[in-house]
Design a protein that fits this description.
Elements: H1 10-33, H2 44-64, H3 75-89, H4 92-109, H5 115-132, H6 141-153, H7 159-180, H8 182-187, H9 192-209, E1 237-238, E2 241-242, E3 267-274, H10 277-290, E4 291-299, E5 302-309, H11 312-322, E6 324-332, H12 333-336, E7 348-356, H13 359-367, E8 371-374, H14 383-393, E9 395-401, H15 408-420, E10 424-427, H16 433-441, H17 449-461, E11 464-470, E12 475-477, E13 480-482, E14 487-491, E15 494-499, H18 502-514, E16 520-526, H19 531-544, E17 549-556, E18 562-566
Parallel strand pairs: 7-8, 7-9, 9-10, 16-17
Antiparallel strand pairs: 1-2, 3-5, 3-6, 4-5, 11-14, 11-18, 12-13, 14-15, 16-18
Helix pairs in contact: 1-2, 1-3, 1-9, 2-3, 2-4, 3-4, 4-5, 5-6, 5-7, 6-7, 6-9, 7-9, 10-11, 14-15, 16-17, 18-19
């Protein structure tokens, strides 16, 4: 029998994030279905999934930085990345609270992952989450988090015992939520956010022990449990209301749920905020007067703000006065529920959704009729953002161009989600923006869907791609050893050229790519690259390859100073 760990190290944190993402992926739809508080908008499971997806991506980035494969990151690096990723990617009320729970844990686990610290981490997480919520309500995810922390305190000083106790305590508390919050009792469901937290704690148990915990209903205080962790309870009375299998009863009136889209604030406003602590204290007071469901999490100059209001503009203005808000997201609850009269009732037949690395290409693709998602440096889009873009496209058929090999799985998840909503989605596996441009150039919405997808896939596949990058440190590459500050020419994803400056490196890359033939060169210039470079490279192509044309686009603020495509 393998020896069980007694310390939560970086590998265990990575495994925890991965398993939590899998668990929420499995249970997302069921959690969405029982979402009646604070707003019955059916997205708690999705929001929790997107929050953990961002946390997991941040942890993976930390591991990717350790290139040798013989060492792993420090526990402190892993847990801080997890917390930061959750903070910047938090969605919705429950996702924002989960981000604060993880941040509270990270503050303790950064010093070590032994059983005593884990118990303290759960206590700190509980306290941090309650402090972040303007008006804590019992019978919610906060109650479940408190129960997990309390149960962990009474566990034996072994890591396995602590995580199991926290999980069992959370399950028992979740079963009691219908008796603590009237709206849950009337609907016959447990708290959706609390159920999501139970799934996350179950993943922690599996990461530590290597075994999935017992899932299913948990009873407490004589009250039957609603579905937990994918379990199914049929016909058991909860607060006098039968619990339906998996989902329960979602209220259909404002009386059932006083804070639903019909009786509460009209908008959900979320943004990241760079601000000082004293500014955030004033912001809390102002936002609390504007609406409800206020949650402000974060610290060290970076905050995540979530609030439900009628005046979305005022909520954003309050953020501007406090500091610098960005990644602002405003959702109208009626629109989210599909009842906004302004939404076209008849979808278009076909649309293209494309991920682009900068504002310049976003404008170009929008002019061509595509719906765009901007992948900013260091901030790749999550699957939820791609799903949102597919919804915005409002078409029966959608061609999705991720334009990045690293987004392959994210795009596949988004496509699968959109298909469950009745949209026919084809994923063209473009690995670079220039391949996406080539695919978009041959797109013809009037021909058959399959024929259009084949043509776009063929055009993308016939386009070789390259980019220039600046080496951040000394490293071994396929082209030799590079030093910090060297200009790297990557062709089809691999370092092929190491140069001293952008113009010379770009010329060498072009010569190597055109040696295999080509008819068209596409150059996408970064924000700080002068037009003179494009002119010089176009002249270089004309001198060596008379039959090859060159087109130039401005990419705006993008990671690479120059993108190159050869068709």
């Amino acid at each position: 029998m393998p020896q069980l760990p007694d310390d939560l190290d970086a590998v265990a944190v990575r495994t925890w994030c991965s398993l939590a993402l899998e668990a929420l992926g499995r249970e997302r739809a069921e959690i969405d279905a029982i979402n009646v508080y604070p707003v019955a908008d059916g997205d708690t499971g999705t929001n929790l999934y997107l929050t953990v997806e961002s946390a997991a991506a941040a942890v993976e980035a930390v591991f990717a930085a350790h290139e040798t494969g013989t060492t792993v990151p420090a526990t402190a690096d892993a847990v801080r990345a997890m917390a930061h990723g959750a903070l910047i990617g938090a969605r919705g009320n429950s996702g924002t609270i989960l981000a604060q729970l993880l941040r509270g844990m990270a503050g303790v686990l950064a010093e070590g992952g032994d059983p005593d610290r884990l118990r303290l981490a759960l206590v700190r997480a509980d306290a941090a989450a309650r402090q972040a919520v303007a008006h804590p309500v019992e019978g919610t995810v906060l109650t479940v988090a408190s129960a997990a922390a309390e149960a962990a305190q009474g566990a034996e000083p072994e890591l396995c015992a602590v995580v199991n106790a926290a999980y069992e305590g959370a399950r028992e508390a979740l079963a009691k939520t219908p008796g603590q919050l009237a709206v849950l009792g009337r609907a016959g469901v447990v708290d959706a956010g609390g159920r999501g937290l139970v799934a996350v704690l179950g993943a922690l148990v599996e990461a530590v022990t290597g075994q999935a915990p017992v899932r299913g209903p948990r009873t407490g205080a004589g009250r039957a449990a609603a579905p937990v962790d994918g379990g199914s309870v049929v016909g058991l009375p909860v607060g006098g209301v039968p619990v339906a299998s998996g989902a329960g009863h979602v209220p259909d009136s404002a009386e059932d749920c006083p804070q639903d889209g019909g009786g509460g604030p009209a908008f959900e406003v979320i943004y990241l905020l760079e601000a000082r602590d004293e500014q955030v204290a004033r912001l809390r007071t102002r936002l609390d007067a504007l609406g409800d469901s206020l949650v402000v999490v974060g610290g060290d100059g970076l905050w995540h703000v979530h609030v439900h209001v009628d005046d979305a503009g005022a909520a954003v203005e309050a953020g501007v006065e406090a500091g610098r808000p960005y990644r602002i997201r405003i959702t109208h609850f009626a629109t989210e529920s599909g009842h906004d009269a302004r939404t076209p009732t008849e979808p278009a037949q076909r649309a293209v959704v494309v991920v682009v690395p900068g504002d310049g290409l976003a404008g170009l693709c929008t002019e061509a009729g595509a719906t765009t998602v901007i992948a900013r440096p260091g901030e790749p889009p999550a699957s939820g953002e791609l799903v949102d873009a597919i919804r915005r496209a409002h078409a029966r058929e959608v061609v999705l161009l991720p334009n990045d090999a690293a987004l392959r799985h994210t795009a596949a998840a988004a496509a699968e989600q959109a298909r469950t909503e009745g949209v026919r989605v084809a994923l063209v596996p473009t690995r670079a923006a220039v391949q996406g441009l080539a695919a978009l150039a041959v797109h013809e919405p009037d021909r058959g869907f399959d024929e259009d997808v084949v043509a776009m896939t063929s055009a993308a596949g016939a386009t070789r791609y390259a980019e220039l990058a600046v080496a951040e440190r000394q490293s071994w590459t396929m082209a030799g050893v590079c030093q910090a500050g060297d200009i790297l020419g990557l062709i089809d994803g691999d370092v092929a050229v190491i140069g001293a400056d952008v113009p010379a490196t770009a010329r060498t890359v072009l010569d190597r790519m055109l040696a295999a033939g080509g008819e068209l060169v596409t150059l996408v210039l970064g924000e700080d690259v002068p037009d003179a470079l494009a002119d010089a490279l176009a002249e270089h192509v004309r001198e060596g390859h008379l039959a090859v044309d060159t087109v130039v686009y401005r990419g705006g603020h993008q990671r690479a100073p120059l993108l190159i495509g050869v068709e």
